[in-house]
Write a structure and sequence with these properties.
The protein is about 25% helix and about 35% strand. The chain has a four-stranded antiparallel sheet, covered by helices on one side.
Length: about 90
């Protein structure tokens, strides 16, 4: 298994697909008014550092960090595709 994590723009085709999958999953769990995930535009506008995890070149997950000053960062949009659990992608 060749796993790579690299910074990518959230508006790339793979990132958009991953974010869409996450939105669909969250939409099945929460009412619209309880969903607060950043849109692709907001990720870009707010300067979120975005990463895509790849397994043998295939997009397997994503996540973003909103760095807030020197004190802390917030995790944004963390997601690993179903069927890939227990392979350590979230930990990586």
């Amino acid at each position: 298994m060749a796993v790579a994590i690299a910074e990518e723009r959230p508006d790339t085709p793979d990132a958009i697909r991953l974010i869409g999958e996450l939105d669909a999953h969250l939409g099945s769990l929460y009412a619209v008014e309880s969903q607060h995930g950043f849109s692709v535009d907001k990720l870009l506008r707010d300067g979120v550092t975005f990463f895509v995890t790849r397994d043998d070149g295939r997009a397997a997950g994503c996540g973003g960090l909103l760095i807030v000053g020197r004190e802390y960062a917030e995790i944004k949009r963390m997601y690993v595709r179903p069927g890939l659990p227990r392979r350590g992608f979230g930990r990586l």
